[in-house]
Fold this sequence. Notes:
This protein is mainly alpha-helical. It has 4 helices and no strands.
Amino acid sequence: MLVGAVLTIVLYRAGLLGVIPGMWLLIYGAGVITGGTFSIRIIPLMGLCFMVLGAVALFSPASWGNAFLAAGFGGLHIVFGAVIARNYGG
Length: 90
C-alpha cells in the first residue's frame, strides 16, 4: 500500500492522472499474487487477473479508468469471492 501511495503522489504531481488506475490494479495484483503464494491456488490467479486488467487499462483511454477500477476492485472481487465461497467454504 505504501508503494501505491507514493507512486500515486508522484504520478499526480507529474500530471499523469490517466495512468493511476492501471498502476493501482497492477500493484494490487502483484500484492495478491505475492500474498497468495502459500494460499489456495485461485488467489494468485486472481492477482494475475488484476495485473492483466491493469495492463489493459494502461493502454486504454484515460477516461475508461473508473470503469477498469470498478471491473477490478468490484467485479473481480465478487467473481473470485463467489468461487472461493462455493469451492472452499468461504
